[in-house]
């Protein structure tokens, strides 16, 4: 099956560095299609030329987050992930679904290559641990007799699926047979987007544990430090205009 990675991304000083790191990982993965969705009204020149040279099958989408939703306490990238889902459904509407697996790959996380081997065998919805998240070294689904029976997490244990966006994959078939499943703005608090989405397409009992019954961390919720530009000149002083 093809792995579809939906990556929301937005313009900021570290963007090209993040995308470079991500592309270097994805280039090692067979049959991966990268769906990069910019949080912008138009496609940026930086991302367009980056993708043209990335050496990866890709689709370049864009949709701006409405300004009222650009708040630190509100969920991020809702519209961008939905744009990726819409593109997938549109592309596969006329053909009986080719085998495919979808996952949501934020541009700042760290992905091991083993993760892709694990997710490629997803039948419906698979799950695995995520490192460096939830105020702990890791969060993970608790597994008993091959089934998910609960969650090891330090944060909001009331979540129906106490899992980060980086902790699950969904088969294309499930995406196509649940055409209305989307990420929701209304009522969705930070940390609840994953649960709100997953409960539209699956149940906890049905989840397929990966990474040796969820005992291995193969993805890390790393977060890049905001860059210090205090010494950046007010007007352009250099003789060349360098893209960073
Ligand atoms: C956590 C989760 O890991 C995210 O999956 C979730 O979207 C997010 O919380 C949330 O609050 O909704 P966190 O590291 O705090 O992640 O969020 P970011 O990595 O800053 O953003 C998640 C993704 O959205 C990234 O791919 C980022 O490039 C993108 N993003 C962020 C935008 O497209 N626009 C923005 O304004 C901010
Ligand atoms: Mn992040």
UniProtKB/TrEMBL annotation:
Q: How does it sit in the membrane?
A: Single-pass type II membrane protein
Q: Where is this site: Interaction with galactose moiety of substrate glycoprotein?
A: 139, 231
Cofactor needs: Mn(2+)
Main localization, broad class: Golgi
Keyword match NAD: no
Identify the residues that bind Mn(2+): 108
- Write the Enzyme Commission number(s) for this entry: 2.4.1.135
Which cellular component, as a GO term, is one annotated location?
Answer: Golgi membrane
Give UniProt keywords alphabetically: Glycoprotein, Golgi apparatus, Manganese, Membrane, Metal-binding, Signal-anchor, Transferase, Transmembrane, Transmembrane helix
Recorded metabolic or biological pathway in which this protein acts: Protein modification; protein glycosylation
> Would you tell me the protein name for this molecule?
Galactosylgalactosylxylosylprotein 3-beta-glucuronosyltransferase
């Amino acid at each position: 099956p093809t792995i579809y990675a939906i990556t929301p991304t937005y313009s900021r000083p570290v963007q090209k560095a993040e995308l470079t790191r991500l592309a270097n990982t994805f280039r090692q993965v067979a049959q991966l299609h990268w769906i990069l969705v910019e949080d912008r009204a138009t496609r940026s020149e930086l991302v367009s030329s980056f993708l043209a040279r990335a050496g990866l099958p890709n689709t370049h989408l864009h949709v701006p987050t409405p300004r009222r939703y650009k708040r630190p306490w509100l969920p991020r990238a809702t519209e961008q992930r939905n744009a990726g889902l819409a593109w997938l459904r549109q592309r596969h509407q006329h053909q009986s679904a080719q085998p495919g697996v979808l996952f949501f790959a934020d541009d700042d996380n760290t992905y091991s290559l083993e993760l892709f081997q694990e997710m490629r065998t997803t039948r419906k919805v698979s799950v695995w641990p995520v490192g460096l998240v939830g105020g702990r070294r890791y969060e993970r689904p608790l597994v008993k007799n091959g089934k998910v029976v609960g969650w090891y997490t330090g944060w909001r244990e009331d979540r129906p699926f106490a899992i980060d966006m980086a902790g699950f994959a969904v088969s294309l078939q499930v995406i196509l047979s649940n055409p209305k499943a989307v990420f929701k703005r209304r009522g969705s608090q930070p940390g609840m987007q994953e649960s709100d989405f997953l409960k539209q397409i699956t149940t906890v009992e049905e989840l397929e544990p990966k990474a040796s019954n969820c005992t291995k961390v193969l993805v890390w919720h790393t977060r890049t430090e905001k860059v210090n530009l205090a010494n950046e000149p007010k007007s352009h002083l250099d003789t060349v205009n360098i893209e960073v």
